[in-house]
């Protein structure tokens, strides 16, 4: 299978996950990644740019090492995607509230020195971004149409609110990192599917 055919297949597979569906708001930072507004008034992200940025992020992470990466998010729907990502790549996860001083205060017992930080939402994960910036650590961020991205080194434009969309971004990123490493062929299925990366809804949430 050619690389182009594989890219088309991947695109078909992910379009139904809501990965490109943004919000009714757009910032000047995210305007270059937006194609149009939907009839419902939601800005839509360019899926081709998203896939290219995932490749960029994968190269960047591989260069620094997945064991030197921390993945953090205070967004509940990012929990399972991040857990699966870290399980497959040996990265460190920081879920829930980001403790002040984690990246900047060596006297704290939970202080760490990663080479790169991956966050799921610049708005929710602002503490992690601020500390990484102060410590000179590059930040990769999944960003929606309404996000401010001035402190991010690599922007992955995608829906960072939806369960399926977040699962898809992390699934694509793991897949691309493994392809870059030569551990997975372009046309080879991965051990896990997108559904395995998805945070499941509890019965209370359904009610």
What does this entry look like structurally?
The protein is α/β, with parallel strands linked by helices. It has one domain: Glucose-6-phosphate isomerase like protein, domain 1 (Rossmann fold, 3-Layer(aba) Sandwich). The chain is 36% helix and 14% strand. The strands form 2 sheets. Strands 4-3-5-6-7 form a 5-stranded parallel β-sheet, sandwiched between helices. Strands 1-2 form a two-stranded antiparallel ribbon. The longest helix is centred in the last third of the chain and has 19 residues. It is globular and about 50 Å long. The mean pLDDT is 93.
> What value does the average pLDDT take?
93
How much of the sequence lies in strands comes to: 5-15%
Shape: globular
Helix content, binned percent: 25-40%
Name the CATH superfamily classification.
Answer: Glucose-6-phosphate isomerase like protein, domain 1
CATH class division: Alpha Beta
The CATH topology assignment is Rossmann fold
Keywords: Ribonucleoprotein, Ribosomal protein
Protein name: Small ribosomal subunit protein uS2
Pfam families: Ribosomal_S2
Organism: Candidatus Nitrosarchaeum limnium BG20
